[in-house]
Fold this sequence. Notes:
The complex is a heterodimer of chains A (86) and B (197). With 86 residues, chain A is mostly helical. Helix content of chain A is 52%, strand content 5%. Chain A has a two-stranded antiparallel ribbon. In chain A, helix 1 runs parallel beside helix 3 and helix 2 packs across helix 3 (67-81). The radius of gyration of chain A is 15 Å and the shape is globular. Chain A starts with 17 loop residues before the first strand and ends in a 5-residue tail after the last helix. Chain B has 197 residues and is mostly helical. Chain B starts with 12 loop residues before the first helix and ends in a 5-residue tail after the last helix. The chains are: A mainly alpha (86), B mainly alpha (197). Chains A and B meet through helix 1, helix 2 and helix 3 of A and helix 1, helix 2 and helix 7 of B.
Amino acid sequence: MKNGNVKEEGFSEQSLPRSNGTPVFDAPWQARAHALAVLSVESHGREWDDFRRHLIAAIADDDRRPYWESWVIALDAFIAECGVVA
Amino acid sequence: MGEGHHHPLPTTPVEDRVAALESLLVDKGILDPTAIDAVVEHYEHAVGPMNGAKVVARAWVDEAYRERLLADATAAIAELGFSGPEGDHMVVVQNTPEVHNAVVCTLCSCYPWPVLGLPPNWYKSPPYRSRMVREPRVLLAEMGCVVPEECEIRVWDSSAEVRYLVLPMRPAACDDLSEDKLAGLVTRDAMIGVARL
């Protein structure tokens, strides 16, 4: 398989999904974090908006933090809100 | 590079956290690991801008479909088999010679997943989210999308319940193309409104 444009949007080359030639995820953990949010909303019978509120809060809290790190902070908060604790 | 020779990279705290959350949800019996794999697989292969391109091409060739799409986008998009999270309240905004539409999510990253897949990184970046509202014409030009001076730019904020999809104008001089070929002309960026076909 031919390598894509490594420099595009500053990402490193990985075998990750692409759309219009750019990766959807920068790393596999981001795809996992995305799926965990989608399924947690579903399995708790919640609305996507319930997760989105945490995502907006995490981004507002530090706009410079990498997006997917804010996503994980939101996921953490959402899961706790659903009463799931270790 | 061949398969089978990977140096394991050290994991980062955020990677560890995701792994820990996944274990927690699986161990508690809340999520099924195969379901997690299926969602990852789905967003890697089954959804993406090719879905939206089919919607746009259909609207170009089928006037009745275009009317349904503009009247109730969620239902018209479901007719082609596309639905799911972030696609429940779709609105399609139509470009015309007088109006160019562009989509942003000012607060986070809301985006119509069933028709466009997941958003590109620049869509989620603070400069795009603020400048698309403040100075859309300048930002669009910087992104290589020059909107004619006499054409109004309308910016739609996806941060409400609604997810927007731009219906680009059909390129001139492609009357003899099939619907499939037309779909091949439609780009993700044109459906966000940061490119013109």
